[in-house]
Amino acid sequence: MAAGNLGKVLLAQGKLAEAEPLLVEAVAWDRKEWGNGGIFNAPLVELRREHGRLDEAEEHLVRGERVLRATEQRVTLGLCLAERALVALGRGDLQLR
């Protein structure tokens, strides 16, 4: 948990390279313990998107979306879908008119 929190702080400061291993560790721990990426999945997705690693970001989002739909977490699902839209925009798969 501490690693993930520090990772979120570093991400907010724009220190992506320093944040990444901490967020990866936190998501892996949450997946092992709880079966999902937990509260650190979204920051890891943001980091991947900021690095231009859109396929990896999408992979995390698809997995998270499945969990959120299954557990009927509508508000968090909305945030997940918004992040998926940002990834699609980054790829050029979605156009704003």
Q: Tally the helices: what do you get?
A: 5
Query: Given the C-alpha coordinates, what overall shape results?
Result: globular
Largest sheet: none
Strand content: under 5%
Average of the residue pLDDT scores: 89
Order of helices and strands: HHHHH
Architecture overview:
This protein is an all-alpha fold and 97 residues long. Helices cover 77% and strands 0% of the residues. It has five helices and no strands. Helix 1 (2-12) packs antiparallel against helix 2, helix 3 (41-50) packs antiparallel against helix 4 and helix 3 (41-50) runs parallel beside helix 5. The mean pLDDT is 89.
Q: Which helices and strands appear, and what pairs or packs with what?
A:
Layout: H1 2-12, H2 16-34, H3 41-50, H4 54-70, H5 74-91
Quick structural gist:
The protein is 77% helix and 0% strand.
Question: Features of this protein?
Answer:
single chain; 97 residues; mainly alpha; 5 helices; 77% helix
